[in-house]
Amino acid sequence: MPPCGFTIFFLLCTHGPPHMGYKSGAPSALVRTRSIAVPRQNHFFLCGLQSTRMAPRTSALINPAQLASNTVRVSWRAAVRLRAGHPWVYRSDLEGSPSLPRAGVVRVLEEGGRFLGCAISSSSSQIALRMISDRDCDETELPSLVSTRIKAAIEYRNALRIPEQSNAYRLVFSEADQLPGLIVDRYNDVLAFQVLTQAMDRKEVREAIIQTLETEIHPAGIVERVEERIRELEELPAIEAGLIRGDKMQTIIEMRAEPGKSPLCFEYDAAAGQKTGAFLDQRENYAAAQRYAHGSALDVFCYQGGFALHLARACEQVIGVDGSRSALEAGERNFELNRSSLTAPEIEWLEANAFDLLRDWSDTGRKFQTIVLDPPAFAKTKKALPTALRGYKELNLRALKMLEPGGILVTCTCSHHVSQEEFLGMLAESARDAHRRIRLLEVRGQSQDHPVVAGIPETAYLKCVIAFAE
Questions:
Q1: Of 47, 302, 315, 414, which residue is the catalytic one?
Q2: Could you tell me the fold of the domain covering 31-43+279-469?
Q3: What are the extents of the domains in the chain?
Q4: Which of 72, 112, 270, 447 could in theory staple to 223 by disulfide, Cβ–Cβ 3.0 to 4.6 A?
């Protein structure tokens, strides 16, 4: 017998090519309410993005005797994606069409048998696996692993001194914090969380989540927000949103645009609002917009006034436009909380269809010196991208026609399907068609409490451009 042996594997790879329009209806009635505004929170939740950049994989081959029922093999294509840092495995990438356990923890191997890591599984989602660790683990370790990751997420935000900027920020951002399907937001002394995957909905995992949050944050209330459509797709049982621990669901949050300056205050009600509440991902962009804003300002899709209130610190006149009366009423209450610290004596709130209003005002020559466009996600799927870009272009074209020379445009998209290149291209076309030359002052993303992870493009969903119009 030879003193040693070795095995040679040959891999042969062939390379080839990889296999809105908006119609305006009858103009909506423009309903004028009093004044106010408040932030909103990220319209976009990551249901299965793992922000884990995988550590180098072991090169050891797994002995066939070690293979168990909780082991799955994935295609070469999926293995390449996992090694590049993306945590998802689609059902079409599973070898042999295995029956995955519901809310399980499985060992993931590539076609040749090399160990890639462990993943949580879904019995229903097209994202069949979401990587949770590059080390071997099992279901009994999942609660402690989740607890450890939550503590790490909190430490990360403390290291960035985010609590010094605001007492409202995202504590856990799904895959970006290596916790696929878990979202946790802090609103002062109230926490709001969402569970979006089967594994995170396991009884022992939910208990670990709540216990860790209580121990680390000591909130007065922990509230669960429910995304019914996602729970249905994940085949999770229907539950009611509401208070899980404590006795508090309403509070006042603060956002500080500059160190040493007094913060702006906003109401927060966990029983109302979108997703987990306010749009915390725009927090740093609110402050950036305030630095450039001047003159008369228009905030379109203002929600509860996150941008509008910051603009009101720098501008003499501010108008906020939204299609939701309840959001505008919340904006007015927020204005009253901050009236004494604002430059604008009032904020005028208009309930209107943004497309109709901008078309009418641009056609009649209405002018502003600062305009903010912060619409909802027009492209919720890749298929909707062309229509979405037409919608964004219509908004930006109208806004550029309404800007005075020297005016500031703050324009955003919250869809990860719209790349930064595509968004900037749309803006350039809008400027050309509006016969305006614009200079890009800042090209921004979401706040740092919503981490962007290399290798996971879905984590970079928010784009915010601040431009100077000549």
A1: 414
A2: Rossmann fold (3.40.50)
A3: 31-43+279-469, 64-138, 142-251
A4: 270
Mean of pLDDT values over 2-13: 39
For 251-294, what is each residue's pLDDT tens digit? Answer: 999 999 888 889 999 999 998 865 545 689 999 999 999 999 99
**In this structure, which topology does domain 142-251 adopt according to CATH?**
Transcription Regulator spoIIAA (3.30.750)
Fold (CATH) for 64-138: 2.30.130
Q: What is the pLDDT of residues 390-403, one digit of tens each?
A: 999 999 999 999 99
pLDDT tens-digit readout, 141-199: 999 999 999 999 999 999 999 999 999 999 999 999 999 999 999 999 999 999 999 99
Active site residue 302: no
Tokens 């103009």 correspond to 27
Q: Say whether pLDDT at 48 is over 50.
A: no
Tokens for 247, please give them: 């006795």
Query: pTM for this structure?
Result: 0.84
